[in-house]
Design goal:
Elements lengths: L1 E8 L2 E5 L1 H4 L6 E7 L2 H10 L5 H8 L6 E4 L3 E8 L12 E8 L2 E6 L4 H12 L5 H32 L6 H33 L8 H67 L14 H22 L6
Parallel strand pairs: 3-7
Antiparallel strand pairs: 1-2, 1-3, 4-5, 5-6, 6-7
């Protein structure tokens, strides 16, 4: 388990030991823990003295964005980008925060990319209370996700412009990956918007009025990203259907070409097979022009069949 803590007072941030941060030293204190749930749960219970109803959501293995009010504050779970390699179905790392008047406990199991930006703001003196810290996390997470969602939309735009039967396989792979990523992000962006909206409306003096406005702005941005990934998912489904139709049309064209070739050679095969039988009585078998006559007949039959296909406009399909 890795632990860090900061005490912020009079616009200045001081890094202190997590155990020292548990003492009433004035100002606003942020304690951040990183590691597996069991060791962190033991420290929070034995050293920090937090109740089980707070420890359980802080150390849960499976989490989703949420916001729950407690007697003295609120528990908030947010999801953001991570530098660790995560699965396609769970592409965002979580940060769990328990905020009360003058103090915030936060826990991460995976490295959260937004954490560095939040620490920078804290050490710069831009954070002075629990509301500021939660707003810093929410804004940093949405600022990092926003360009990534925009890139997904741009990728889909490129696929829509490049629709062509010659690139069906490559485009289908790209569209499928884009759709899978959008579904993974949507899984957390929708409840994250709800969690931020609920946080902005929670009662309590620990969350200042300006913080509520900033949280509402972060919720609005999360809502816009959720709507964007919804749009990307639906557009990807339509593009996938279009590519499937193009692939089916391509197969139909190739099947038609094969059928035309087979129709041309089928009567020729029958004629050559008939004349090639090793029996007596084949007409003109002894004539010197017989071979040239059979070849000419085959060419004429082929031309007649091709002409019939052209008249029916099958060759242009």
């Amino acid at each position: 388990m890795n632990g860090r803590a900061w005490r912020i007072a009079d616009g200045r941030a001081e890094r202190i030991d997590p155990e020292a941060a548990l003492q009433d030293c004035g100002g606003f204190v942020w304690i951040h823990l990183h590691g597996e749930g069991g060791e962190i749960a033991g420290w929070l219970r034995a050293t920090a003295g937090l109740p089980d109803y707070v420890i359980d959501p802080l150390t849960a293995v499976e989490t989703r964005p949420r916001c729950d009010a407690t007697a003295k504050g609120a528990f908030v779970n947010l999801r953001g980008l991570s530098q660790d390699e995560l699965s396609a179905g769970d592409p965002l790392a979580s940060v769990r925060l328990y905020a009360s008047a003058g103090r915030v406990h936060s826990v991460t199991r995976r490295h959260l990319s937004a954490l560095d930006a939040v620490i920078e703001r804290v050490e710069r003196g831009d954070v002075s209370d629990p509301g500021d810290l939660i707003v810093a996390f929410a804004m940093a997470i949405t600022e990092q996700l926003d360009p990534l969602i925009a890139d997904l939309g741009d990728t889909l735009d490129d696929c829509e412009e490049a629709l062509d039967t010659s690139r069906v396989f490559d485009l289908r792979r790209t569209v499928a990956q884009t759709r899978a990523r959008s579904i993974g992000y949507r899984r957390f962006l929708m409840p994250q918007r709800t969690a931020l909206e609920k946080l902005a409306s929670l009662p309590g003096e620990w969350l200042a009025a300006d913080d509520r406005l900033h949280v509402s702005a972060a919720a609005d941005r999360a809502a816009r990203m959720a709507e964007e990934v919804d749009s990307i998912r639906e557009r990807a489904a339509l593009v996938h259907e279009t590519l499937t139709d193009l692939r089916a049309e391509q197969l139909d064209q190739r099947s038609l070409q094969i059928a035309i070739v087979a129709m041309v050679f089928l009567p020729l095969t029958f004629l050559t097979g008939l004349l090639g039988m090793n029996v007596e009585g084949i007409p003109f078998a002894k004539e010197p022009w017989a071979f040239a006559g059979v070849v000419a007949l085959c060419v004429a039959m082929s031309a007649a069949i091709v002409g019939w296909f052209a008249r029916k406009h099958w060759l242009n399909r």
